[in-house]
């Protein structure tokens, strides 16, 4: 029995002795210079794994190696590039969220030259139909070649899209055993789903304008969260209370088909509301590892309507039944070279083909979908006013996890959490993801376009990986008419803002050999990143090999980039201060021409900064 220690006489902890100078422990305690270099590169926003690209001037033959950012979207690969992508997405959401005008203008009227090409294409189509009726196949081939040339001319003239589909289809999705006929499913709504009103969708994307009692008008928007149904009670840490009764199979199927359910929700919401609702959001895992989605919605919609549409939305998966798993990854079917099919390892009978399995579903009048995906009862929606701190906080919340892998959003710190993740992952490994998934062989069905390279139970699809947890598609979901711009357009706006702030003009060589400033529509202008002109390309790019003599070590390239980025930051801050003070001479910064995308994002005072002096349309 140990005697109790008297108060005030507790033993004083012995401080850890410092390692002896010159010892191995002292040397290992020193920071590594390579790690410090990468840390500084991250602080200055320099890509830590740049791509060495060789640029060759086609006029002079001059060749130089230029480091381009890798463009990674995950922090575990490149934190600076991932941070830049996150800020760019935030700017994209911010620009389109509270718009009060339509982002995309209507198409311009067609020119006479464009109309004449369409008319000529119509004459060729008429001649081809007559030759086909007369079985003049040599003329059909000549007309097909003429149609191809005319369609190329139509595209070069500036018309979007195709006039009509091609006559000959080279779709490799059609298997050898597929008849090519389109399978039709009943569009009748399920009896267990409530009906929704259907209105004609108006060609508008902006929401309703409200008038306050004082006469002022405002146009609020919304923030929405959609979750999946419950698979069993869970603890606060996300783990199931009873793992044996937790429905991991349904959780895996819901995660795989969650994107289709979201598409169906927006389709139903637009039909129910009667206008083209626009959204921008992100798909993330909950603590229980089930996917859910956060969306910024332009305009306002009644909360009861959102809950009703979510309850009435479902997605049916019309695939062959997978009730019984006939094979395992350790004892799978085998490939028969002579029959060019997968067969049973014992009886050597061919497995059911994909077409036969679907025909069995079509012939059964009582057939049911193999799985039905639905939303849960938890639908969170609230209004957000433009220009408030709540709007900025919501944007940061929506993009909180886009720089992380799905499996890294919630770290498993306990054995219970790790066991829950493993059981969900094992269920995802045997869940078919597409019509060509190798996991169909585990259920005695040959997938579409089956071949000998398939590995049952080891499909390479992203939904089966431990890092994705079933979320294998795009995690950022933005509607077409959100901001009227692509991500490349937003990057172009960032570079234009920086060049306008610094007063930088890029010089290009004209046709007669002179040099003039590159302005819109000037002769001799080179093709920019937006393809605004049709001039020839002056430079040829190719990936440089790491063992090339002119490609230096990575540490040298990082140090040069850090020094260059530090000078850019200094010049940008100086130009920003002069712009805030008033018009000033920016001739001192005329020599700077940034080449990297978004070089101002680390300054903290560029287009990404809400309080910056850049225009709102530049995010």
From TrEMBL:
InterPro entries: RepSA. Residues 508-522 have a biased composition (Polar residues). Residues 189-205 have a biased composition (Basic and acidic residues). Residues 1-24, 156-205, 508-532, 576-619 are annotated as: Disordered. This is Replication initiation protein. The lineage of its organism: Bacteria, Bacillati, Actinomycetota, Actinomycetes, Micromonosporales.
């Amino acid at each position: 029995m140990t005697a109790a220690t008297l108060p005030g006489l507790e033993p004083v902890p012995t401080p850890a002795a410092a390692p002896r100078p010159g010892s191995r422990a002292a040397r290992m305690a020193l920071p590594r210079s390579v790690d410090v270099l990468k840390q500084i590169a991250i602080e200055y926003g320099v890509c830590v794994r740049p791509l060495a690209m060789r640029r060759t001037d086609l006029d002079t033959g001059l060749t130089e190696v230029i480091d381009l950012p890798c463009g990674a979207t995950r922090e575990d690969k490149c934190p600076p590039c991932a941070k830049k992508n996150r800020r760019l997405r935030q700017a994209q959401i911010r620009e389109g969220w509270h718009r009060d005008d339509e982002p995309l203008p209507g198409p311009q009227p067609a020119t006479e030259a464009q109309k004449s090409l369409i008319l000529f294409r119509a004459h060729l189509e008429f001649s081809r139909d007559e030759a086909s009726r007369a079985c003049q196949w040599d003329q059909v081939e000549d007309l097909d070649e003429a149609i191809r040339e005319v369609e190329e001319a139509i595209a070069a003239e500036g018309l979007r899209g195709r006039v009509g589909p091609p006559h000959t289809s080279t779709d490799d999705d059609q298997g050898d055993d597929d008849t090519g006929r389109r399978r039709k499913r009943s569009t009748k709504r399920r009896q267990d789903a409530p009906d929704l009103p259907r209105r004609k969708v108006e060609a508008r994307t902006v929401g309703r304008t409200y008038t306050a009692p004082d006469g002022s008008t405002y146009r609020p928007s919304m923030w929405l969260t959609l979750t999946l149904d419950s698979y069993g009670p869970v603890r606060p840490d996300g783990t199931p209370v009873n793992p044996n009764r937790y429905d991991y199979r349904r959780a895996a199927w819901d995660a795989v088909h969650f994107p289709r359910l979201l598409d169906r929700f927006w389709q139903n919401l637009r039909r129910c509301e009667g206008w083209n609702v626009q959204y921008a959001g992100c798909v993330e895992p909950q603590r229980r590892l089930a996917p859910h989605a956060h969306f910024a919605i332009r305009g306002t919609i009644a909360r009861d309507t959102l809950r009703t549409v979510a309850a009435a939305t479902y997605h049916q998966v019309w695939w062959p039944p997978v009730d019984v798993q006939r094979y395992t990854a350790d004892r799978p079917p085998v490939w028969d070279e002579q029959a060019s099919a997968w067969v049973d390892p014992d009886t050597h009978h061919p497995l059911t083909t994909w077409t036969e399995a679907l025909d069995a579903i079509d012939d059964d009048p009582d057939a049911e979908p193999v799985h039905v995906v639905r939303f849960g009862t938890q639908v969170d929606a609230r209004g957000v006013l433009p220009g408030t701190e709540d709007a900025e906080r919501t944007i940061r919340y929506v993009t909180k996890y886009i720089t992380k892998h799905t499996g890294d959003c919630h770290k498993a710190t306990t054995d219970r959490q790790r066991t829950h993740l493993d059981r969900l992952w094992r269920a995802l490994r045997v869940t078919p993801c597409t019509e060509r998934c190798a996991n169909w062989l585990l259920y005695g069905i040959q997938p579409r376009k089956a071949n000998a390279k398939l590995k049952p139970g080891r499909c390479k699809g992203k939904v089966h990986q431990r890092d994705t947890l079933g979320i294998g598609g795009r995690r950022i979901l933005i509607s077409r008419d959100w901001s009227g711009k692509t991500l490349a357009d937003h990057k172009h706006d960032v570079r234009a803002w920086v060049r306008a702030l610094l007063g930088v003009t890029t010089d290009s060589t004209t046709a007669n050999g002179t040099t003039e400033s590159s302005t819109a529509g000037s002769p001799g202008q080179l093709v920019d990143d937006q393809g605004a002109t049709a001039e020839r390309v002056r430079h040829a790019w190719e990936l440089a090999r790491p063992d090339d003599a002119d490609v230096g070590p990575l540490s040298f390239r990082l140090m040069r980039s850090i020094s260059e980025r530090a000078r850019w930051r200094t010049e940008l801050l100086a130009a920003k201060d002069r712009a805030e003070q008033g018009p000033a001479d920016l001739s001192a910064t005329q020599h700077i021409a940034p080449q990297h995308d978004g070089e101002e994002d680390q300054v903290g005072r560029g287009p990404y900064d809400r309080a910056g002096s850049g225009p709102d349309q530049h995010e």
